[in-house]
Amino acid sequence: EIVLTQSPATLSLSPGERATLSCRASQSVSSFLAWYQQKPGQAPRLLIYDASNRAAGIPAKFRGSGSGTDFTLTISSLEPEDFAVYYCQQRSNWPLTFGGGTMVEIK
Amino acid sequence: QVQLQESGPGLVKPSGTLSLTCAVSGGSISSSNWWSWVRQPPGKGLEWIGEIYHSGSTNYNPSLQSRVTISVDKSKNQFSLKLSSVTAADTAVYYCAKVLRTAGRENAFDIWGQGTMVTVSS
Predict the structure, then answer these.
(1) Which of A55, A94, A95 sits opposite B110 (nearest CB)?
(2) What is the DSSP secondary structure assignment for residue B65, as one 8-state letter?
(3) How far is Cα B9 from Cα B118, in angstroms, rounded to an integer?
(4) In chain B, how many H helices and how many E strands?
(5) How many CB atoms lie within 10 A of CB A87?
(6) Where are the beta strands (DSSP E) in A1-107?
(7) pLDDT averaged per 10 residues, chain B (length 122)
(8) Which of the residues A96, A97, A102 would you substitute to probe the B interface, choosing the one with the greatest number of B C-beta atoms within 10 Å?
């Protein structure tokens, strides 16, 4: 099973700041990595697939990068609605796995 | 636009069987997509349970495989989850999700149901 490790667990930032979230895989997942945003009481929302492709309707402030074992999600300028939990997920090998999440909170 | 809606009992007794259904609207379950179940225990992260294609082909998480059955009902445009021998550890929000297909292969989960809370308790 591929283990995805997200860091940091919590990121405390102010609106307008840049957020940089990391996801590291225990073995290569090529570019088969996705990022999701989840707000309290809501289902996850797909942001990025194939490591760097934005899903439909996702603004350009969300940028995914990386390949192999190291991936990054960057949010260029945080707005109030961006404070949430973010998960990475791989579809390189079964079982499909998720990272433990990074909470982006208001500082 | 495809929409998904989970339904089923919110309370299941220990050692019983959890049964949920995901109704697909705005599209056909017989399209070239896989359909998945994902769960999230209270305050914790996401866990993939398994997925199904309209042909009936399935993939399961080995950690749950001995207790899980996912099936499809094309006549009702829905798919279902059964999880047997449940314990308190199976208490979670259960989501159904559609698997995005790009460049001829399966990809991320692009559409999610709202989720349904299932509590295992006597």
Answers:
(1) A55
(2) T
(3) 7
(4) 0, 11
(5) 24
(6) 4-7, 10-13, 19-25, 33-38, 45-49, 53-54, 62-67, 70-75, 85-90, 97-98, 102-106
(7) 97 98 96 94 98 95 97 96 98 97 91 98 96
(8) A96
